[in-house]
């Protein structure tokens, strides 16, 4: 449903450009002409009608706001579910690979045996066999 609100008049008027609430100048087009804006009530009514909504002429602020709030309050309330998804890319493989390479270099290239390596006794003959 679409609710349209017509602002301004069908006669039209210039668009003020304000700074700090004070009109500084009027909006101009690329040719330097003052832009005149007009309310196209027929288009707004047609759009609202085709979409199953309502058209409001913004003449009296309080009346329009109250009517619009009443219509919006009658709409079906729909709850939207929110899902959060995080896709992490595994990066630990690089660290495992570097660690394995460093361990192989330690075993193959270093002549001294570290204390934990001596405790393993991998290359000593088995005396019980």
Provide a quick synopsis of the model.
The protein has four helices and six strands; from the N terminus they run E-E-E-E-E-H-E-H-H-H.
Give the key terms.
alpha+beta, two-stranded parallel ribbon, single chain, 4 helices
What's the arrangement of secondary structure elements?
Elements: E1 4-6, E2 13-14, E3 16-19, E4 22-26, E5 36-37, H1 41-50, E6 55-57, H2 61-73, H3 92-109, H4 115-120
Write structural notes for this entry.
Strands 1-6 form a two-stranded parallel ribbon. The protein has a domain at 4-73. The model has no long low-confidence stretch (mean pLDDT 80). The N and C termini lie far apart (89 Å). The protein is of the alpha+beta class and 129 residues long. The protein is built from four helices and six strands.
Q: Level of helix content? A: 25-40%
Main sheet strand line-up = 1-6
Biggest β-sheet: count, sense, barrel? 2 strands, parallel
**Straight-line N-to-C gap:** 89 Å
Structural class assignment:
alpha+beta
**Order of SSEs:** EEEEEHEHHH
Which parts are unreliable, with pLDDT below 50 for 5 consecutive residues or more?
A: none
The number of helical runs is 4
């Amino acid at each position: 449903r679409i609710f349209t609100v017509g602002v301004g008049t069908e006669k039209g008027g210039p668009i003020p450009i304000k700074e700090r609430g004070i009109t500084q100048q009027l909006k101009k087009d690329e040719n330097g002409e003052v832009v005149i804006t007009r309310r196209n009530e027929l288009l707004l009514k047609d759009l609202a009608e085709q979409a199953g909504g309502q058209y409001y002429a913004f003449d009296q602020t309080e009346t329009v706001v109250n009517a619009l709030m009443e219509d919006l309050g009658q709409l079906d309330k729909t709850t939207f579910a929110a899902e959060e998804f995080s896709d992490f890319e595994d990066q630990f493989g690089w660290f495992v690979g570097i660690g394995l390479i460093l361990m192989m270099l330690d075993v193959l290239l270093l002549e001294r045996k570290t204390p934990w390596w001596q405790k393993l006794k991998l290359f000593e003959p088995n005396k019980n066999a």
